[in-house]
Amino acid sequence: MNSLKPAIATLAALKKSGYQSKSIKEELRSNLVQLLQEGKEPFEGVWGYENTVIPQLETAILSGHHINLLGLRGQAKTRLARLLITLLDEWMPIVKGSEVNDDPLLPLSRFAKDTLQEWGDATEIDWVHRSDRFAEKLATPDVTIADLIGDVDPIRAANLKLSYADERVIHFGMIPRSNRCLFVINELPDLQARIQVALFNILQEGDIQIRGFKLRFPLDIQFIFTANPEDYTNRGSIVTPLKDRIGSQILTHYPASIEIAQKITQQEARLNAQQKATIKVPGLAMRLIEQIGFEARNSEYIDTKSGISARISISAFENLMSTAELRMLKNGLTSTTVRLSDVIGIVPALTGKMEMAYEGEQEGAGLVAEILIEAAVKTIFESLFPKILKIEKQEANGPYAELMEWFENLDNGYEILESLNDKSYVNKLDIVALNKIILKYQPNVVKSEMPFLKEILLWGLAASKKISKIRVGKGLLFRDTFSDYLKNI
């Protein structure tokens, strides 16, 4: 990678250093080639795309293509675009004072050409760090051609006493000002068709037109577009000639496994240092958070076309930690471990991130969130313990018979209060019948995971309709379903 330092201050010194101009596509390509040859990972921190999206993205860069990242919300499209900055040279020289990042050896603008003609090798050079070579625009219906490309500036014309026929009266928009940079347009289908048309020549020929001006202005830009396929039918579309000019369209996707989803959540979740120090998180709790997202993507209550963002798990995990912290503070504790009952606190993180199908609208977002939590618990329960048999005769001596009998003998049910400290909570779950099931089917469970696993077992039985689970006051009450039925009568 180019490691020239901004100590070089004149064109003469730049020439003496051996600097050679190259396009941004050549820059991205050469730096990617160097990283791959050195065995380094160009896109660190992006999980689950190692064998799908990233190889396609690398191929597009090697081909020198403009790129469209097509996928549902929360699939790291913008993150990938921003990571391309790391493939740029650390520093880029420009003619000092240039609005369009003029290359001192290949000037574009009237300003740069006049400056070089006047000062020659004494022309002053500025340096731009790669972190400043990234521009991003969210496509909204109110975006204008003036915003993106530019317009005639009457105030400049008056101050400089220039006619409107003079190139110097043009006020450049975001795209020309991003010359020799990465330019990202997010949600491209939301951009009006007439604005998309204005991009044709910029992508292909390099011409720009501003109110009658036709400038041969070969901009050097790497375009990255992002789009959601839902937009193609709901709000807009990408016009065909523009799609034809975008070299590579890359499809993104959601994590394929719980393990990958957990890595993303742990990386992206913003936790307070105090939360990390005082709250322990069982591995099963992390698994449950991710399973909820997987259940949502297959739920009849959710409009799956709009997608379930990875942010749903991130926000849910943050809420789970905060719920445990709130319980800890209210009960005067100094530390705690996440409990399954804390999961009720993630409901607000779920309701705002799900587009409901008709069935979901009828149930309501809050109830759908609770249904998803129950479904996730049941899925984990059935992966760890024997499934509940539907034929009652076979269950008489089944794996849960002793535990079910224990519940039948309880007069007032089995209550777990939120106010219990961790020691009392562990003791409360020390039920002989419960311990036997854990010992038989999960004998290698880590001791710190034991309480959460026991709650999974209880919640799983409740989700399978073998016992009842009721929220009462500041806790949960479990009891035999028949006793619950009689009390309701």
Structure description:
This protein has 489 residues and is an alpha/beta fold. It folds into 2 domains: 11-251, Rossmann fold, CATH 3.40.50.300; 258-488, no CATH class. The chain has 25 helices and 16 strands. The strands form 6 sheets. It has a 5-stranded parallel β-sheet with strand order 4-7-10-1-11, with helices on one face. It has a 3-stranded antiparallel β-sheet with strand order 14-16-15. The radius of gyration is 30 Å and the shape is elongated. The termini are far apart. The model has no long low-confidence stretch (mean pLDDT 88).
Secondary structure elements and pairings:
Layout: H1 11-16, H2 24-37, H3 53-63, E1 67-70, H4 77-83, E2 91-95, H5 110-119, E3 125-129, E4 134-138, H6 145-148, E5 150-152, H7 154-160, E6 170-172, H8 174-177, E7 182-186, H9 193-197, H10 200-204, E8 207-210, E9 213-216, E10 222-227, H11 231-234, H12 240-245, E11 248-251, H13 258-268, H14 273-278, E12 279-280, H15 283-297, H16 311-330, E13 336-337, H17 347-351, H18 358-363, H19 365-384, H20 392-395, H21 401-408, E14 414-417, H22 422-428, H23 432-441, H24 450-463, E15 467-472, E16 475-480, H25 481-488
Parallel strand pairs: 1-10, 1-11, 4-7, 7-10, 12-13
Antiparallel strand pairs: 2-3, 5-6, 8-9, 14-16, 15-16
Helix pairs in contact: 2-3, 13-15, 13-16, 15-16, 15-19, 19-24
